[in-house]
Task: structure prediction
Amino acid sequence: MMLMMLRWISRWPLALLHAVGAALGWITWALSPSYRRRLRANADLAGVSASARRRSVGEAGRMVAEVPWLWLKPAGETLEGLVRWDGAELIAQAIAAGRGTLFLTPHLGSFEVSARAVAERFGAERPLTVLYRPARKPWLREMEETSRHRPGLATAPASLAGVRQMLRALRRGEMVGLLPDQVPPHGQGVWAPFFGQPAYTMTLAARMVQQTGATLVLLWCERLAGGAGFVVHVRALGEALPEASDQSEAAQTAAASIINRAMERIILQQASQYLWGYNRYKNPRRAGAV
Result:
């Protein structure tokens, strides 16, 4: 029943989905005091204006409303005409160099759309593998796994097997995508500043670059107003990571700090589309915990 309803919703025009999603975002905000407190506290840490913070409530709902529209698209239907590119030449250059490409994307804008857009434009040359945490509900997990498997696009679970899958992809010169502002399990990160407050930050991104020689690229997808589509932005990291030979905790913290600073720069360019309600500063769960 739920899947049938989602399939029906997925056929709505994008502008209608965004309007309904914005309303749902505000309903969620109104019903959850803890969400309101966390959203305001996180946005205040970053120095985000009150107006941008308010807009982020509706944008979070729009992001959720996009999911069935994107996941349940017919196999032959693409994003053509809905996506514009800003900096796509950086991806083309990385592919031409013959090395793997690691995309770092924060919880900003339409990050689900960004993976599909990359796969549609570049997947025939170099497939893209994205890391994800499987949903707990079996029906949602099945839909998630089947919907994300598209031409040029594969998924890897957030597990040791998934990490090995991504490393193999990078060594083959393929593309991999991560959300580096996601809190990793205990033992898989370090505490590094994020908008001035210590946040448990994954070390995986830097280690993958160091172990494979992959090109690290920043990527995020801006949602345009009125269902007009999206703009995928691509940028270089801008700072050099520590040498691969240095695996000390200090070097890992330095690398995590560099990546966090890059995420901060991206987020502040489109602050109203960041998920400020995400519990970024929580303590990490134990590895293997549900």
Q: What stands out?
A: The CA atoms of residues 56 and 272 lie 4 Å apart. The first strand starts at residue 83 and ends at 86. The mean pLDDT is 91. The longest helix spans residues 50-71.
